[in-house]
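Title: Prediction job returns without error message
Component: structure pipeline
Severity: low
Priority: P3
Assignee: unassigned

Description:
Job completed but the reporter wants confirmation the result is attached to the right record. Sequence as submitted:
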Amino acid sequence: MSVGSVLRSAWVVFVMVLSALSVKGQCLDGNSFVVCPSIDAIYLLNKNSLGAVNLSDGTVKWQVVLPHETDEAYLGPVRSDNALVLFAGTPLTRAYAFDPESGRLIWRKEASSDEWIGAGPYILFGDRQHWEAVTALDDRTGQELHLEFIDAHQPIRQLAGDGHFFACTDFRVAGTKDQIYDIDFWINDKDGTLSVDRARVHKVPQLKDGQWVQVPRYDWKDLGDSHVVP
């Protein structure tokens, strides 16, 4: 079965997205620390502290001591637009967001997940109680959005620049009818194994003249040339 035929199944796309929302694809595990590269910095995490090193000159940008509320483990960090987020606990039951520029703690929230990814100004993770949905955390405030999967757009496209498959999906805010988020996923095919390498919020719901409409955050055509997957 071809990659295109697999991705044309909306349910397969959604299940794959849930299963692939993993920090393992973004960080490297060392013997005593985790290394997470970003655009302008490298983030280092061990059991006691979190720090940032400038990519431009290798100098230490900042370093902070981790909050130890219990004898706990940490997973992450994941970089979003405005925050650097860790999950903590044994099991993982809390989320901490740090300012990427200073290391200052922005917010703390009770949250549970081991599968997650940054998507623009949100952190997406699988909801263990409602596996057919995704929870999004606003990276500025920690506010939760519970999103229910609707469908994957057709056709699936493949980007000419890096070869990623581009899957566009719709999620409805739970308990609403017309508040719909459009979330895009960059999917990589490596030796027949599909994984999500990147996610980005494409459109957000806004109330205009008494009706909910989708307002784009970016134009996918700006990503460059692409073609429809046969």
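Comment from assignee: result matches the submitted record. Residues 10-20 form the longest helix (11 residues).
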